[in-house]
């Protein structure tokens, strides 16, 4: 089976962790291809909730090789803490492989992230303060430090000292912060390296060879399409490419290796942090969605902004990712609403946009054009098949399919593995005949 990409179609937090967990049992490798510990995947297994920030969800299956690809930025301290957490729960991490080309988040990246956000004030991006953006910035500026660098103390020490000449000048002269001592950084990271060295390898070759051998490989994205640095609502985006193309560059494989691209979408929409959000409901509807859906960030605990489903965004995500399938999560959250709205277009200065607008000012100031659909009553959490859903819920899913232009092949009605139904057209065999 060729490669299989799984990604978010909105502003992240769509439930990718659960779907990755559902599919991972049928995979041989699960590969994280971008982002850092600014993302979180919450997986519920046997009633226990696990929040994973760097390690792919495939870690929960003993036969799966979890891979962190070239496109990920890794905070080694956070990674080791996550590995220890999993080991403490009886989950082995011995098979984890980290790309030798993955860039490392350094202490000065975290410090710069925090102070620049404070400096920006009302214009801040809304980052998590984890150093993700500065790490990617150094990567592009060719000043970054990669995982392979910590395996050679001489190279690593020289790179840290060179980097801190610039970073300390910025921190002390512009932001009035104390300089960071190179020796402290080197000592801490060489300690991390002693534990991580057995896990660092050529992941591009590993994935390529696995595909040649006919093994199943799942490429797992973080964040979502609308947070993509090139295709999202810039500058209120992440610093990497969550879109399907990012899986190729973030792992090091070619487009012929990809067979399917599964987009994950909530039955409504959420967003964390600053930036435009056309269908946001900053009212009792938004509060109800947040409360029922427990919409708080898995990594930061921040409140998520909530709103109606946006079919303009859905069509855009389908186009830029080349989606082959759509998986709808949290359909159960909409139970009890008398009517449910879906944005079918945007209106701005007398013009209607059914496709995502080409200018940021339109996105910031547009008015969504809604169509309303009948809601339904009753708890959907026990539904296990399409026929278990009430008629209006079935109709709503069909509406999302029609408006996005992508077949819906899966629906989720709760956080656990069992609260899932795969619909007609799903080709990958699932455990238990799901």
Rg from Cα: 22 Å
Number of helices: 12
Percent strand: 15-25%
Mean pLDDT: 92
Largest sheet composition: 10 strands, mixed
Number of domains: 2
- What is the SS-derived class? alpha/beta
CATH architecture verdict of the largest domain: Alpha-Beta Complex
SS elements, strand count: 20
Give the termini distance in whole angstroms.
19 Å
Order of strands side by side in the largest beta sheet? 9-7-5-2-10-1-11-15-19-20
Low-confidence blocks of residues: 429-434
CATH fold call of the largest domain: Adenylosuccinate Synthetase, Chain A, domain 3
CATH superfamily of the largest domain: Adenylosuccinate Synthetase, subunit A, domain 3
CATH class of the largest domain: Alpha Beta
Give the fraction of residues assigned to helices. 25-40%
Q: Would you summarize the structure shown here?
A:
The chain is an alpha/beta fold and 434 residues long.
Care to describe what's here?
The chain is an alpha/beta fold and 434 residues long. The protein has two domains: 3-88 and 202-433, Alpha-Beta Complex (Adenylosuccinate Synthetase, Chain A, domain 3); 103-198, Adenylosuccinate Synthetase, subunit A, domain 2 (Orthogonal Bundle), CATH 1.10.300.10. The chain contains twelve helices and 20 strands. It has helices spanning 16-24, 76-88, 107-120, 132-140, 153-173, 182-196, 203-212, 244-251, 284-293, 311-321, 360-365, 391-404; strands at residues 3-8, 29-32, 41-45, 48-52, 65-68, 73-74, 97-99, 103-104, 200-201, 217-220, 258-266, 269-271, 305-307, 309-310, 325-329, 339-348, 351-353, 367-374, 408-412, 420-422. The model is unreliable at 429-434 (pLDDT under 50).
């Amino acid at each position: 089976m060729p490669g299989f990409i799984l990604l978010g179609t909105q502003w992240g937090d769509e439930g990718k962790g659960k779907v990755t967990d559902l599919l991972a049992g049928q995979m041989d490798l699960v590969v994280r291809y971008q982002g850092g510990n600014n993302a979180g995947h919450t997986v519920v297994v046997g009633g226990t909730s696990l929040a994973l920030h760097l390690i792919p969800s495939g870690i929960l299956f003993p036969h799966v090789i979890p891979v962190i690809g070239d496109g990920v930025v890794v905070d080694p301290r956070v990674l080791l803490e996550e590995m220890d957490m999993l080991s403490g729960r009886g989950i082995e991490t011995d098979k984890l492989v980290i790309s030798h080309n993955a860039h490392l988040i350094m202490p000065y990246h975290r410090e710069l992230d925090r102070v620049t956000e404070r400096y920006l004030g009302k214009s801040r991006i809304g980052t998590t303060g984890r150093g993700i953006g500065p790490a990617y910035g150094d990567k592009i500026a060719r000043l970054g430090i990669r995982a392979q660098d910590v395996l050679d103390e001489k190279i690593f020490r020289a790179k840290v000292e060179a980097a801190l000449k610039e970073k300390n000048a910025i921190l002390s002269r512009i932001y009035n912060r104390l300089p960071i001592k190179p020796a402290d950084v080197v000592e801490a990271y060489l300690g991390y390296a002693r534990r991580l060295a057995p896990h660092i390898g050529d992941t591009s070759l590993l994935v390529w060879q696995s595909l040649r051998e006919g093994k199943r490989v799942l490429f797992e994205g973080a964040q979502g399409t609308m947070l993509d640095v090139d295709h999202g609502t810039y500058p209120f985006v992440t610093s990497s490419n969550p879109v399907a193309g990012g899986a190729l560059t973030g792992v090091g494989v070619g487009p012929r290796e990809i067979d399917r691209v599964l987009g994950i979408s909530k039955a409504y929409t959420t967003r964390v942090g600053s930036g435009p959000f056309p269908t946001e409901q900053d009212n009792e509807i938004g509060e109800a969605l947040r409360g029922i859906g427990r919409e708080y960030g898995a990594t930061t605990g921040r409140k998520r902004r909530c709103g109606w489903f946006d079919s303009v965004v859905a069509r855009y995500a389908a186009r830029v990712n080349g989606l082959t399938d759509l998986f709808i999560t949290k359909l159960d959250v909409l139970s009890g609403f008398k009517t449910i709205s879906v944005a079918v277009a945007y209106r701005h200065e007398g013009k209607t946009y059914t496709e995502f607008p080409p200018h940021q000012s339109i996105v910031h100031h547009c008015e969504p054009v809604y169509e309303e659909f009948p809601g339904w009553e009753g708890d959907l959490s026990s539904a296990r098949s399409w026929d278990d859903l009430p008629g209006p819920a079935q109709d709503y899913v069909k509406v999302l399919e029609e408006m996005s232009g992508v077949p819906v092949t899966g629906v989720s009605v709760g956080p656990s593995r069992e609260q899932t139904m795969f619909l007609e057209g799903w080709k990958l065999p699932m455990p238990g005949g799901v």
